[in-house]
Design goal:
Radius of gyration of chain C: 21 Å
CATH topology of the largest domain in chain C: Rossmann fold
Helix content of chain C: 25-40%
Strand content of chain C: 15-25%
Order of helices and strands of chain C: EEEEEEEEHEEEHEHEHEHHHHHEEHH
Largest sheet of chain C: 8 strands, mixed
Strand content of chain B: 5-15%
Oligomer: heterotrimer
Radius of gyration of chain B: 19 Å
Number of helices of chain B: 12
Structural class of chain B: alpha/beta
CATH class of chain B: Alpha Beta
Shape of chain C: globular
Distance between the termini of chain B: 54 Å
CATH class of the largest domain in chain C: Alpha Beta
Distance between the termini of chain C: 30 Å
Strand order of the largest sheet of chain B: 1-2-3-7-6
Low-confidence stretches of chain B: none
Mean pLDDT of chain C: 91
Shape of chain B: globular
Order of helices and strands of chain B: HHEHHHEHEEEHHEHEHHH
Chains: A alpha/beta (about 350), B alpha/beta (about 325), C alpha/beta (about 375)
CATH architecture of the largest domain in chain C: 3-Layer(aba) Sandwich
CATH topology of chain B: Rossmann fold
CATH superfamily of chain B: Thiamin diphosphate (ThDP)-binding fold, Pyr/PP domains
Largest interface: A-B, 49 and 50 residues
Chain lengths: ~350, ~325, ~375
């Protein structure tokens, strides 16, 4: 066991699985830092590996037949991985930015998600699509979205949002071993977060929330980077005597509904924190779940903290205002604590 | 290359099966016995069968919304296909896919695809699998003239060339992308020359001539198998019926529709094999009778088969959940 | 932190590598109360478990500093013991000095971290604390790991070197059990481990299934053991609670695991979220479940009677058992030979080294290392 970053944890997951199963292949743009097409006299980059380094060293270890660098052609690349997945391989496609889902969404939501069902259970699509999500690096509107809500909405897809290095490695291993199409969303701001991560391979199951902190006063449900934001808020709130039970669902599809409802039954108050846009989002989805199945436990209206209904702005002070902050989360908690529905 | 007798018989049997299947689906649809949409392949039989006679069960094909012909040509079970079109539980997809999503992975049929341009990326994926697994398999994509304009098709051709995949792109030019004539929608001279510009060999053949299609496909598929990379074949065969059952076809004249029927792939095949003395009329008649019987039985069985139950609604979305 | 001759600090201890702070949950004595060595002073809770801090000296509790419900970093001063004769000003000065100079013990500044060693093709994780003397070797039980000794190892390592090892298939040791077909093979691997570390003779302390391994070593290689302390032992003629073992194997989520782990402790409330999570995380390591299954098989093959288990054992043996152990029924003194010392701890379940760690340390100190 050693301290590793989120990025290293993901790299380990890919490496272990590629060693364990020869059917696992990677595909995407730049995943070998241009190794495949580099000129003979180019220096190369043994340290590199994709835009944010997750695939470092893999093309060197596994070769160009298993780490396939493609032209910038997301439809063909993702569709190719769908076809390869249903004919014997286990591809891990790198979409790079989730914002690029627009140019290949048909392959994801009409093909990958539906083949098993439309073909009466006779096809399986053991495909993982990895992509970066989230704001906080001034990457502006078309490189900063979450979009997990769009994927979660589609039956047939599984959607994963790891918030920590330990979870990232275990969830990616589970994703690669899963026989269904998995959308694996890595928050770009989390890549350098560090924590103890076992050297061995291990699974983190889907549909099981992580209870980050125990608390009796209020349930906070948070996703991806918002888990850390909510954790910071909970430390402030602890000093004010408010005990936060922080829940990280880790996967939005499947969603640990029982885990969330159990916590709300205990505390009676809940704030949901989601970096996505508010309309038709996962935050609203969880709020509806709680309102319909835990109504009688509630002592206060459900709190919902999200980004505004805008694209992600470029300018740093605007992006800062866009992202839910620890203060906003703490304020939302104080509001539900002081509110009494009855 | 001269085909063996048994292959000639098989080719005729498949083409006749497609013709009778489709004409019966048409009439059953007109009687109101089939739900949803159907898109008929009549007049294009030689294209599917000419190509698929060169394929093994383990090779993969991808098709379009107009997929019955490819399915039959690839060897899928006709009765199960009919049951699927009739939306029954005994259908190839349990009644959950229908005409536009007929698939059978045991025969390498990756499915009809209701999204125009939907199958080429998947087919190059099957080609990638074959290359990675080293089994000399190929992936063959059937796309229409309409689908040839889709970005996914262009991307797949480029990807196949760049990664040198064992893929063959068959562009079935049946004259129309829905109601739009191909010569309006395809900006350049023809589809084959456009495919050629992507860096692969591309030829154009008469899609109503089984032997021309078969021979051209044979060499292109062989090319792919031996690792020389992808290629494209444009087969020209105008479809007889409308884009879909119920299409009023106001985009072409009655004279035009009649003219098209004079170029019947089955009639051409029969004339050739009889003239060359490769087959006898009695053999062809025997096949005709057998096919009629098979399709009649398929319809009877499909009509009597049970529909899926309500519990089938929520199954097979995932392998496991969570 | 050091005392000052006749002034002795009560501090928040560091139990285990990951512990950064403890919650002070209850005081057992008031300021001014007379104390004897070993009196329970205060309960400290961590994320894993709760335990109490005992008086290390006799005297008076001159200051009670820590507040119930507050969390303090490891090493923080929460009380002061001194005789009545020590002047108030000295106590006050001592407290002030401590506030000015003490630092909480951080994770980075913590002492030893576990190491890995290759033994006969297996990678074993172990933790070394202390130095000198005749070494103590601590062996955990089924599904456990070296962290089970987090209260005991620091205490014992005050006076000699103390090793805690992860058995193969457990903790951070490799999960591939190739070449290991029974508990005898496990024992042989541990002997090889001792050989690699050049440890001729050790005081062996073993828990539950680890005790079955230890007994096998005592029978076959008794000359390598200076003494044997068995905690809640398997292998002494008592069969394990099969419901527990089945439950442990089957538990796949928090709810199921919490229900199973509750059987381990006398006070069920002590089964914390972290305890449950740690066990789930272990089971989810590649190969862990398969290894556990094999160990369950090994254990089921062990059916010697008490007399057979101890036949020919020359090493001095003591047994410590929790009166409320629901996994392995405690033997009575009548069921054990007279030369085997038996200590039965009240209000204790299957994990005396977690539930009553200071009593366990005491029993080990006055049996093995001094004898």
């Amino acid at each position: 066991m050693a301290i590793k970053s989120y990025r290293q944890a993901l790299n380990e997951a890919l490496r272990h699985e590629m060693r364990r199963d020869p059917m696992v292949i990677l595909a995407g743009v730049d995943i070998g830092d241009g190794y495949t097409s580099a000129a003979a006299d180019a220096p190369g980059d043994a340290e590199g590996g994709g835009v944010l380094g997750v695939t470092a060293g893999l093309i060197q270890e596994f070769g160009v037949a298993r780490v396939i660098e493609t032209p910038i052609s997301e439809s063909a690349m993702i569709g190719m991985c769908v076809g390869a997945a249903c004919t014997g391989l286990r591809p891990v496609a790198d979409l790079m930015f989730a914002d690029f889902l627009g140019v290949c969404f048909d392959q994801i939501f009409n093909q990958a998600a539906k083949l098993r069902y439309m073909f009466g259970g006779k096809a399986k699509v053991p495909l993982v699509i990895r992509a970066m999500v989230g704001a906080g690096q001034n990457a502006a509107a078309q490189h900063s979205q979450m979009l997990h809500s769009l994927f979660t909405h589609i039956p047939g897809l599984k959607v994963v949002l790891p918030s920590s290095p330990y979870d990232a490695k275990g969830l990616l291993i589970t994703a690669i071993r899963d026989d269904d199409p998995v959308i694996f969303l890595e928050h770009k701001v989390l890549y350098d977060v560090q924590e103890e991560v076992p050297d061995e391979s291990y699974r983190v199951p889907f549909g099981e929330a992580n209870i980050v902190t125990d608390g009796d006063d209020v349930t906070v449900v948070a996703f991806s980077m918002m888990v850390r934001t909510a954790l910071a808020a909970s430390k402030v709130l602890e000093k004010e005597g408010i005990g936060v039970e922080l829940i990280d669902p880790r996967t939005t599809s499947p969603l640990d509904e029982d885990g969330i409802l159990e916590s709300v039954a205990k505390t009676g108050r809940v704030v949901i924190v989601d970096e996505g846009n508010p309309r038709c989002g996962v935050g609203a989805d969880v709020a509806a779940l709680i309102a319909s199945r835990a109504f009688h436990s509630l002592k206060a209206p459900i709190g919902l903290v999200t980004a505004p209904h805008t694209p992600v702005p470029f300018s740093p002070p605007l992006e800062k205002a866009y992202l839910p902050s620890a203060e906003r989360v703490a304020d939302a908690v104080r509001r539900v604590m002081s509110s009494n529905a009855r | 290359m001269q085909l063996k007798t048994e292959d000639l018989l098989e080719a005729y049997r498949r083409m006749r099966t497609i013709r009778v299947f489709e004409e019966n689906v048409k009439s059953e649809f007109e009687r109101g016995n089939i739900p949803g949409f159907v898109h008929l392949y009549v007049g294009q039989e030689a294209s599917a069968v000419g190509v698929c006679m060169n394929l093994r069960d383990s090779d993969y094909i991808g098709s379009t919304h107009r997929g019955h012909g490819h399915c039959i040509a690839k060897g899928c079970d006709v009765k199960a296909m009919m049951a699927e079109i009739y939306a029954r539980r005994t259908g190839l997809c349990g009644g959950k896919g229908g005409s536009m999503h007929i698939a059978d992975f045991t025969h390498g049929m990756l499915g009809a695809n209701a999204i125009v341009g939907g199958n080429p990326p998947m087919v190059i994926g099957a080609a990638l699998s074959a290359k990675t697994l080293g089994n000399q398999g190929v992936g063959v994509s059937f796309t229409g003239d309409g689908g040839s304009n889709q970005g996914t098709t262009f991307e797949s051709m480029n990807m196949a060339v760049v990664l040198k995949l064992p893929a063959v792109f068959i562009f079935e030019n049946n004259g129309f992308g829905e109601s739009t004539s191909y010569d309006y929608a395809v900006g350049c001279k023809d589809v084959a020359s456009r495919a050629g510009a992507f860096g692969m060999p591309a030829v154009k053949v008469d899609g109503t001539d089984f032997f021309a299609v078969h021979e051209t496909a044979r060499s292109m598929i062989e090319r792919a198998r031996t690792g020389e990379g992808p290629s494209a074949i444009e087969t020209v065969a105008t479809r007889w019926h409308g884009h879909y059952m119920g299409d009023a076809e106001t985009y072409r004249s009655k004279e035009e529709r009649n003219r098209v029927r004079r170029s019947d792939p089955l009639v051409k095949f029969q004339s050739r094999v009889l003239r060359e003395g490769w087959l006898k009329q009695t053999q062809l008649d025997q096949i005709d009778a057998g096919v009629e019987g098979l399709i009649a039985a398929a319809i009877a069985e499909a009509s009597a088969a049970p529909f899926p139950t309500e519990s089938d609604l929520v199954t097979q979305v995932y392998n496991s959940y969570p | 932190m050091p005392g000052k001759g006749n002034i002795h600090p009560v501090v928040v201890p560091k139990w285990g590598m990951a512990m950064e702070r403890g919650l002070l949950s209850a005081w057992h004595v008031d300021e001014g109360a007379p104390l004897s060595v070993g009196d329970e002073l205060v309960d400290i809770e961590t994320e894993k478990i709760a335990n109490s801090v005992e008086a290390t000296h006799s005297g008076i509790l001159r200051r009670r500093i820590g507040t119930v419900g507050e969390a303090y970093p490891c090493g923080a001063l929460i009380g002061v013991i001194a005789e009545a004769t020590v002047a108030e000003e000295e106590i006050t000065a001592f407290v002030a000095e401590h506030a000015a100079t003490s630092r909480p013990v951080s994770v980075e500044a913590s002492g030893p971290t576990p190491q890995m060693i290759d033994v006969n093709g297996h990678s074993l994780r172990y933790l070394t604390q202390g130095a000198g003397g005749v070494p103590v070797l601590l062996i955990h039980g089924l599904a456990g790991d070296l962290n089970n000794w987090l209260f005991v190892q620091p205490a014992l390592s005050g006076r000699r070197v103390c090793y805690a090892v992860d058995l193969p298939g457990h903790g951070g040791s490799s999960k591939d059990l190739s070449g290991i077909h029974n508990l005898v093979d496990v024992g042989d691997l541990l002997l090889a481990f001792l050989d690699r570390l050049a440890l001729d003779r050790v005081h062996l302390v073993a828990h539950s299934m680890g005790a079955a391994v230890a007994l096998d070593l005592a029978r076959r290689r008794g000359h390598r053991l200076a003494s044997l302390t068995l905690l809640s032992p398997a292998g002494l003629g008592v069969s394990s609670n099969s419901e527990f073992i089945a439950g442990l194997m089957a538990a796949g989520n928090r709810r199921e695991m919490a229900a199973v782990l509750k059987m381990l402790l006398a006070d069920e409330v002590q089964v914390s979220r972290d305890l449950v999570n740690d066990m789930l995380k272990y089971k989810r390591l590649d190969g862990a479940e398969a290894a556990l299954r094999k160990f369950c098989e090994f254990l089921s093959q062990e059916n010697r009677s008490t007399a057979q288990a101890l036949a020919g054992v020359a090493t001095p043996v003591q047994v410590i058992w929790g009166a409320q152990d629901r996994i392995l029924r405690p033997l009575t003194a009548a069921e054990l030979p007279s030369n085997v010392r038996l200590t039965v701890l009240e209000s204790t379940g299957h994990m005396p080294h977690l539930e009553k760690s200071s009593r366990v340390v005491e029993a080990i100190e006055n049996w093995g290392p001094s004898g």
